[in-house]
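Data deposition worksheet. Section B asks for the primary sequence of the deposited chain exactly as it was used as input, without tags or linkers unless they were present during the calculation. Section C holds the resulting structure in token form. Section D is free text for depositor observations; keep each observation to a single sentence. Incomplete worksheets are returned to the depositor.
Section A, Depositor: J.P.
Section B:
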Amino acid sequence: MNKILLIEDEETLNEVVTMNLQLEGYSVEQVFKGSTALQYIQQLEDFDLIILDVMLPDVSGWEICKRFKEKSNIPILFVSAKGTSSDKIKGLKLGADDYLAKPFDLEELLLRVQVLSNRKSSTGKKSTTLLIGDKEVNLSTYEVSHGKTLLATLSKREVDLIELFYDHEGEVLARDFILDSVWGVDKYPTTRTIDNYILQFRKLFEHDPREPYYFHSIRGVGYKFTLR
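Section C:
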């Protein structure tokens, strides 16, 4: 059964949405305040989808989305009376996966919920750990370990970059492709920023960073990740 965290301060709407989701077979955890929502930040992997209002008491939906996305790739659906194009763009830039303006049709909400919760279920079948040589990257905790020894705790950006390389193992990835995939088309860092990430990865994963086995620079193009 897919589990949804519903964060909506309007009590009547919260109850109506909860009832309809439950009728569709979803398990729903109800939250009415932003500060309460942040208490779930260590439990995000227990859920398949977050439905999040923007205007909440104590802490805004914008801030909650930002904090949640720093910890997890859990799908987030904004529902808000703030329905202008600029509001939708802001929500998507913060990492939300979809944005539905109030008032909305319940059928449309349920359809969007189905699509997003299925996305989490299907991606959830992927391994939660990746092996790079004799080191293990935990995609849930962002920790890198060698046996039982913790070597480092990565940022979300670093984990996203490693996942991108892992998914395209053996392929030469152009800098523009890496930037679009990990940073987004509107948040280009400098080329030097990517170089710094690669240097850190080499220090962490390579036996000899000067002679990389995993993370290769391809002059004039970008980078290639290999496991063999």
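Section D:
Helices lie at 11-23, 34-37, 61-71, 85-93, 106-123, 156-167, 175-183, 191-205.
The chain has two domains: 3-123, 129-225.
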